[in-house]
Amino acid sequence: MDSVGNIVLYFCVAICLLIFSIKAVTAKKILRAATYLLFVLLGTAIFYFQMGYQFLGAVQIAVYAGGIMVLFVFAILLTNKPNEQDAAGKRHRKLWGFLVAAASLILLIFAIFYMPLIHGLSLEQCLAASNTITMHDIGVAFTGGERFQYLLPFEAISVLLLACIIGGVTIARKEV
Predict the structure, then answer these.
(1) Please, are residues 176 and 78 in contact by the beta-carbon 8 Å criterion?
(2) Residue 81: pLDDT above 60?
(3) Is the pLDDT confidence value at 86 over 70?
(4) Pairing with 8, which of 32, 48, 78, 87 sits 20 to 30 Å away (CA)?
(5) How far, in Å, CA of 115 to CA of 121, rounded?
(6) String of b and e for 39-56 (b: at least 16 CB within 10 Å)?
(7) Mean pLDDT of 95-103
(8) Does residue 41 carry a pLDDT above 70?
């Protein structure tokens, strides 16, 4: 990622990912939210291609952007009334949602700074020792299969997501 074109592409895709992520969470219609999520997944695949992980980028497009998004759309269409909301519990759910999001943000920041990331060192230790962290090191940490690398949790979460979608489709079929 040395050329100016790659840097410009990176920032354009990053801005698009940020916008579509926010739109996916704040969309009022669930099908639009699923479409915005599709764009986020495709943007993530572009990042994988930029880092040189062609196989992982292809898997991102084929499995997540293709297969799981189809399951999302079918799960949405199989439900009775996806836009129906009960007004009584809306404020209560927003408060719980905010509390869970705040707790998740705190845990995420803690994990980013204190979990071993590169060569068994945490981000805090790398910054304190003035070690340089390359894009290759970050890519290996997230997609490698060695200790303190995140390939296995990534795949476990994808299987969990698939099981949730299949469960949602099964529940939607029983209610119809």
Answers:
(1) yes
(2) no
(3) no
(4) 32
(5) 8
(6) bbbbbbbbbbbbbebeeb
(7) 87
(8) yes
Beta-carbon contacts of residue 51 (< 8 Å; ≥ 6 apart): 1, 135, 136, 139
Give the separation between CA 34 and CA 103, rounded to whole angstroms: 25
pLDDT at residue number 35: 84
Question: What string of H, E and C letters represents the secondary structure of the chain?
Answer: CCCHHHHHHHHHHHHHHHHHHHHHHHCCCHHHHHHHHHHHHHHHHHHHHHCCCHHHHHHHHHHHHHHHHHHHHHHHHHCCCCCCCCCCCHHHHHHHHHHHHHHHHHHHHHHHHHCEEECCEEHHHHHHCCCCCCHHHHHHHHHCCCCCCCHHHHHHHHHHHHHHHHHHHHHHHHHC
Closest alpha carbon to 168 in 79, 86, 63, 59: 79
> What type of residue sits at position 176?
V
Dihedral class, residue 147 (left if φ above 0, else alpha if ψ from -120 to 50, else beta): beta
pTM tops 0.70: no
